[in-house]
Design a protein that fits this description.
globular; 8 helices; 8-stranded mixed β-sheet; TIM Barrel
């Protein structure tokens, strides 16, 4: 499997429970041999997350640091069963990249039907490009419906490395990710592998996710991490 050259889900001190600066994360990305890093701090509804003003001033941040292209965006919280996210459209328009994720502190898990409809509705938001860590078994989801919805909307499904590391808080992630990968392969749905890094040393470290992809024999052509231009073109769709 070819080298992964981008990591598009990472957090800085602005998220409130992460511990590196933008500069430190960019330096770590360079040292890991990445070409592109996206900083996607949690949106405001997650406890400890930054005020919306944080997301309004990304223009001051260098677009390249240590030889790495820098994208600035957000991990949006899905806050109701209608798929609503916690930043307004005017801000979303200015983002380089937006991930939408379910977090139990922002939305209590519903029924399998409710959770699935929530994800499908979030995908309809034209600014959402990635569904973050859908493997968390605390939110039961119809993965077949999720993958088909992602393919229809042109949204990437995330394979989240942090879900697979020792001590991860998400439920049944390994088995859920195997099922997600099986359905993505069947449907020809592209995935993106991310670290969900909350500290510089984990930026660009995909060991557990890569092992799972190799174990399942997932097709490399459905993984967007191997070509920066391919990913940037995807964002412009």
């Amino acid at each position: 499997m070819r080298k992964f050259v981008l990591d598009t889900h990472t957090h800085t001190v602005a998220s409130g429970h992460a511990y590196g600066t933008v500069t430190e994360m960019a330096k770590a990305a360079s040292e890991a041999g990445l070409e592109l890093l996206a900083v996607t701090d949690h949106a405001p509804k997650l406890p400890g997350g930054p005020h919306e003003m944080y997301f309004r001033n990304f223009k001051v941040i260098d677009k390249e640091m240590f030889g790495v292209k820098i994208l600035m965006g957000a991990e949006l919280n899905i806050i109701d069963y209608q798929g609503t996210v916690d930043l307004e459209e005017g801000l979303l328009k200015k983002m380089d990249i937006c991930i939408a994720s379910l977090h139990t502190v922002c939305l209590s898990p519903g029924t399998r039907s409710e959770n699935t409809e929530t994800i499908l509705k979030a995908m309809e938001n034209p600014y959402v490009r990635i569904i973050g860590h859908p493997d968390d078994g605390r939110f039961a989801i119809d993965y077949e419906a999720m993958v088909r919805g992602a393919k229809e909307q042109g949204v990437l499904i995330e394979i989240n490395n942090s879900s697979l590391v020792s001590g991860a808080c998400r439920l049944n992630s390994a088995s859920n990710l195997r099922e997600i990968l099986r359905i993505c392969e069947k449907c020809g749905q592209e995935v993106i592998v991310n670290t969900d890094s909350h500290f510089p040393s984990s930026v660009g470290q995909f060991r557990e996710a890569r092992a799972l992809l190799e174990e399942t024999g997932f097709p490399e052509e459905l993984i967007v991490n191997t070509e920066t231009e391919r990913f940037l073109k995807y964002l412009k769709r």
